[in-house]
Design a protein that fits this description.
402 residues, alpha+beta, OB fold (Dihydrolipoamide Acetyltransferase, E2P), Dihydrolipoamide Transferase, Chloramphenicol Acetyltransferase, seven-stranded mixed β-sheet, four-stranded antiparallel β-sheet, 10 helices, 19 strands, 29% helix, 24% strand
């Protein structure tokens, strides 16, 4: 009796998905729990594993098809694992090809493109994905290890894939379908512009105290907690303090009502190979610096690998975005609806400032708070931003909550 493989139950608020890539074709033998196909939703890529060992008898959907929950994807003819064909020997018969994901048919579109652009042999790269599949990070790591300019390879890991340059003197253009996540980003940001009365206030912050604190305790912190002491935990804690003082910034409008939160779920905007994602640090008000840094590191890694779950991307009462890691001096961030506030961080610059009647050089950063003026008054927004500034310039305030 054949086994039907259907689209899994989609997360709440997601009605459909797009078939991103099949990793098997009709006639291929699959092992139980081996990934058959990637489904792209508005926020995450879902993997559909094989429920049994067997042979793909029929594929009912193709790459690019739009599917809904519980829709039939393929049919598997169950077989015993002992009936699986043996892996073909490598050149010279010296070794077996043990990772099925090394063949080009099993590469995701992003990985296949990167492999082709750099003229690589996938079999020479060790895959760390499920079942030995190659990930984009595996390929980038391989390029970095053989490159004389590791810094450039590292930057590539967080940047979009480069577009192949056309030959000088030629004029070309290409058309590509927009991805589901990019379409969702575009729709949500435009909705924010059309709905909210967005206004941005600015301030700057002297980060000398934070830098000194990090320098003093960086090694002992990492040794005790196994987490790197970065800047983001200070900003999260500073925002939590400000949100407690000005709850309207932690609220949102729902029709004629305002919904206030007695908790702080902080979204951290992050770049990923598929576009902008905002994983959530839940209950940030009750978490230590170490816990926040650990979660940010774990969520950032998942974002780069495209492994964030829907639950990790759902909700959030306030967002922090850091354009400074890309060199931004100043920007006006757009709200992440339905939230009413978003804090923009920027690059740290050594700038002259007046301090105790003298001109000194200090590490300064511009801060930008975009807020929904329908429920947040300008005075509240400015005082919120001043609270963040004061907490960062005197981190002891975060401990004493003053």
């Amino acid at each position: 009796m054949t086994v039907e493989v259907k689209v899994p139950v989609l997360p709440e608020s997601v009605t459909e998905a797009t078939i991103l890539a099949w990793h098997k074709k009709e006639g291929d033998f699959v092992h139980r729990d081996e990934n058959l196909v990637d489904l792209e939703t508005e926020k995450v890529v879902l993997e559909v594993p094989a429920p049994v060992n067997g042979v793909i008898a029929q594929l009912l959907k193709q790459d690019g098809d739009v599917v809904t929950g519980d829709e039939l994807l393929c049919v598997i003819d169950p077989k015993d694992a002992s009936e699986a064909p043996e892996a073909a020997p490598a050149d010279g018969g010296a070794a077996e090809q043990t990772a099925p994901a090394q063949s080009e048919v099993d590469l995701s579109p992003a990985v296949a493109r990167l492999v082709a652009e750099n003229k690589l042999d996938p079999s020479q790269i060790t895959g760390t994905g499920r079942g030995g599949r190659l990930t984009k990070e595996d390929v980038l790591g391989f390029l970095e290890s053989r490159s004389a300019k590791p810094a450039a390879a590292s930057a590539e890991a967080i940047a979009p894939l480069p577009v192949e340059a056309a030959a000088p003197g030629t004029r070309s253009e290409r058309r590509e379908p927009i991805s589901r996540i990019r379409s969702t980003i575009a729709r949500r940001l435009k909705d924010a512009q059309n709905t909210a009365a967005m206004l941005t206030s600015f301030n700057d912050v002297n980060l000398q105290a934070v830098i000194d604190l990090r320098k003093k305790y960086k090694e002992s912190f990492e040794e005790k907690y196994g987490a790197r002491l970065g800047f983001m935990s200070f900003f999260v804690k500073a925002c939590v303090e400000a949100l407690h003082r000005f709850p309207a910034v932690n609220a949102y409008m729902d029709g004629d009502d305002v919904i206030y939160h007695d908790y702080c779920d902080i979204g951290i905007a992050a770049a990923s190979p598929r576009g902008l994602v905002v994983p959530i640090i839940r209950d940030a008000e009750s978490k230590s610096f170490a816990r926040i840094e650990t979660e940010i590191s774990e969520l950032g890694k998942k974002a780069r690998e495209g492994k964030l779950s829907m639950d990790e991307l759902t909700g959030g009462t306030f967002t922090i975005t850091n354009g400074g890691v890309f060199g931004s001096m100043l920007s006006t961030p757009i709200l992440n609806p339905p939230q009413s506030g978003i804090l923009g961080m920027h690059r740290i610059e050594q700038r002259p400032i007046a301090e105790n009647g003298e001109v000194v050089i200090r590490p300064m950063m511009y801060l930008a708070l975009t807020y929904d003026h329908r429920i947040i008054d300008g005075a509240e927004a400015v005082r919120f931003l001043v609270t963040v500034k004061e907490s960062l310039e005197d981190p002891a305030r975060l401990l004493l909550q003053v």
